[in-house]
Amino acid sequence: MSPEQISGRLSLCNQLEISQETIYQYVYRDKRAGGKLVSHLRSQKRYRKRYGSGEERRGVIKNRVSIEQRPAIVAEKNRIGDWEGDSIIGKDHQGALVTLVDRYSRYTLCAPVASKHAEGVTAAMLALLEPYKARCHTIILDNGKEFALHETVASQLETAVYFAHPYHSWERGVNENTNGLIRQYFPKNTNLKEVTPDEVNFAIDQLNHRPRKSLGYRTPYEVFFDKHSTWHNTELDVALRI
């Protein structure tokens, strides 16, 4: 959790007024004294822009429906039930994670799969979203061939599935950002075949209960399930350590 998130969350819960700058100063004083708090600060990641013609080089997915045809309300990002989906690949293509994020609340679902084969990815998507079928209006996916069975997903969940334009990752910006957060738990050198469901569930639980500035320092869990904002002392203790 970042100092900004800790500061905003404390203010939201009327527990303590402390600025993020004060927290940063404390962390760096600790560093100068030989402490290790600085190691818990989230590092800034450099992004390399990918240039290309914009044409998909991985083959065309049969019967894909372009994002241009999605309902206008999805772009407004003001309702629960519009999901973005993608996959995260492990080191040397060893295993993968299927990720789904609600655009409005940032509530995240994730499951490990042995590979990016369409059958396994489709089964994981259905298992993740089935409990939320009534809150699944649309799904926007990446153009990877692991989503080739999108029609099965649409049929079983009774939802509409759309595809972003090739190499337009910003059209799934919430998902892309969330994948970056998940990578903090499972870096690119991780063999995802060795990651257990419990480890994945722990990481996602942490993210779903992390206050977000974009949500007014509420958590994705609170927004998705319409819960009141509370922060117990034990949670405060943990936050001040991270």
Keywords:
five-stranded mixed sheet; globular; alpha/beta; 9 helices; 5 strands; 242 residues; Nucleotidyltransferase, domain 5
Structure description:
This protein has 242 residues and is α/β, with parallel strands linked by helices. The chain folds into two domains: 3-43 and 229-241, no CATH class; 67-208, Nucleotidyltransferase, domain 5, CATH 3.30.420. Helix content is 35%, strand content 12%. It contains nine helices and five strands, in the order αααβββαβαβαααα. The protein has a five-stranded mixed beta sheet, with helices on both faces. α5 links the parallel β4 and β5. α4 runs parallel beside α5 (150-157). It is globular, with a radius of gyration of 19 Å. 30% of the residues are buried.
Topology:
Blueprint: H1 3-12, H2 20-32, H3 72-76, E1 82-89, E2 96-102, E3 108-113, H4 118-129, E4 138-141, H5 150-157, E5 160-163, H6 173-183, H7 197-208, H8 220-224, H9 233-241
Parallel strand pairs: 1-4, 4-5
Antiparallel strand pairs: 1-2, 2-3
- How many separate structural domains? 2
> Helix share of residues?
25-40%
Question: What is the helix/strand order?
Answer: HHHEEEHEHEHHHH
* CATH architecture term of the largest domain: 2-Layer Sandwich
CATH topology of the largest domain: Nucleotidyltransferase, domain 5
Summarize, please:
This protein is an alpha/beta fold and 242 residues long. Helices cover 35% and strands 12% of the residues.
